[in-house]
Write a structure and sequence with these properties.
Number of helices: 3
Organism: Puccinia striiformis
InterPro entries: GalP_UDPtransf1 (IPR001937), GalP_Utransf_N (IPR005849), HIT-like_sf (IPR036265)
Helix content: 10-25%
Domain Galactose-1-phosphate uridyl transferase N-terminal: 4-182
Structural class: alpha+beta
CATH class: Alpha Beta
GO molecular function: UDP-glucose:hexose-1-phosphate uridylyltransferase activity; zinc ion binding
Protein name: Galactose-1-phosphate uridylyltransferase
């Protein structure tokens, strides 16, 4: 049975009438567990392996899944993804009657986490070329397999946040991959896309 779209529970886009761009809203991530961290100026030394880290091998993550043992790069589907379910929930009648100033659309896709290395204390800059190659291979594998399995994906991007102040909830060196059913207009302005299309059609 297909779900009814609920903007308080489902990822969606909201239209910004001033810029004529769509902005992603991941309201369901309010349910993501917060461990009560408070930012301090102290720089703590990281352990090679942290038994409390969700991303270290063989540890249990916040959602209850176990991170498999891995020797090099490792990726898995994000337990608390910004978007999910490539099947878009149907909009309810009340959604369709909303005023034009508050436009929403369901946003869907797949989100993945790539752990660089089992070592909790090594950034990519501290890895050897042989340890970095599997990370690049993970990028290639995700880029090629996601589009093949999910042809409605329009935008795939790799990005990294570093530090709790920027929203990185885990110090274990990792990054994210988002595969979206639409193109992020804030990352690629609508005018750029229109210019590319006009050039291709000229």
């Amino acid at each position: 049975m297909q779900q009814t779209f609920d903007p308080t529970q489902h990822p969606h886009q909201r239209f910004n009438p001033l810029t004529h761009e769509w902005v992603i809203c991941s309201s369901h991530r309010n349910n993501q567990p917060w461990q009560g961290q408070i930012k301090t100026n102290e720089v703590s030394e990281l352990l090679p392996c942290d038994p409390k880290c969700f991303l270290c091998p063989n540890n249990t993550r916040a959602g209850g899944q176990v991170t498999n043992y891995y020797a090099l790069a490792y990726f898995f589907e994000n337990d608390f993804a910004a978007v999910n379910d490539l099947e878009v929930p149907q909009e309810s009648e009340s959604d369709l009657l909303r005023p034009a100033l508050h436009q929403t659309e369901p946003a869907c896709g797949k989100c993945f986490v790539i752990c660089y290395n089992p070592r909790h204390d090594l950034t990519m800059a501290e890895l050897s070329p042989d340890q970095i190659s599997p990370i690049i291979n993970a990028w290639i594998e995700l880029y090629t397999t996601i589009k093949r399995k999910h042809p409605n994906v329009s935008d795939e991007r790799i990005f990294k946040n570093k530090g709790t102040m920027l929203g990185c909830s885990n110090p274990h060196p990792h990054e994210q991959v988002w595969a979206l059913s639409y193109i992020l207009s804030l990352a690629i302005p609508t005018t750029v896309l229109e210019s590319q299309e006009n050039f291709a059609n000229s």
